[in-house]
């Protein structure tokens, strides 16, 4: 394999590891999985998110009770991402959309960008500094959850803010009976 191709493969592997790191943060927040959330950050990492500035454990301690009191469900969705890698340091800009279904059934949406400095230590990429640039927010009109009234739809599990969520099941199996609404 030529050197140029090998460098592209190494870059691609680093990008995948960095994307996986950013995803651990989002999934950890939405599932209230502290261990998963913390696995995205170095122990000495700094965070600037909304009014919070400090370490990542303090951010967890501030954000989770706020989301637990305010929302039934949260989604931290990751979108476009750029990554500049220079040795064992990378800078990433990742667009996001946050959606929360509030306890009063209203919706809260916000969007912006996570701007991160990541470091590779002992062969592993994690966030060393995160800043959160919030660029817009809105309260869209709520609608009923689609298909919530289908009998037995909950047999494959329901959304949960802990490791009881169906996404943690191994192996994942279907518990619903075959059914085609078209007949």
TrEMBL record:
Gene3D superfamilies the UniProt entry points to: 3.10.450.50
Record-annotated SnoaL-like domain positions: 11-131
Residues covered by region (Disordered): 155-183
Top-rank taxon, per record: Bacteria
Pfam families xrefs: SnoaL_4
Descriptive protein name: Nuclear transport factor 2 family protein
Species assigned in the record: Novosphingobium aquae
């Amino acid at each position: 394999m030529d050197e140029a191709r090998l460098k592209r493969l190494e870059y691609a592997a680093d990008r995948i590891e960095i994307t996986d790191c950013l995803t651990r943060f989002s999934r950890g927040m939405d599932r209230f999985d502290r261990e998963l959330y913390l696995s995205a950050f170095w122990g000495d990492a700094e965070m600037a998110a909304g009014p919070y500035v400090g370490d990542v454990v303090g951010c967890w301690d501030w954000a989770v009770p706020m989301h637990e009191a305010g929302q039934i469900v949260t989604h931290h969705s990751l979108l476009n991402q750029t990554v500049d890698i220079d040795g064992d340091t990378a800078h990433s800009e990742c667009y996001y959309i946050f959606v929360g279904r509030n306890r009063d059934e209203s919706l809260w949406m916000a969007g912006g960008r996570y701007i991160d400095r990541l470091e590779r230590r002992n062969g592993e990429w994690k966030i060393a500094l995160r800043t959160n640039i919030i660029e817009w927010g809105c309260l869209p009109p709520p609608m009923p959850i689609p298909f919530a009234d289908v009998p037995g739809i909950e047999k494959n599990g329901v959304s949960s803010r802990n490791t009881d969520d169906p996404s943690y099941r191994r192996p994942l199996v279907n518990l619903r009976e075959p059914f085609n609404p078209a007949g």
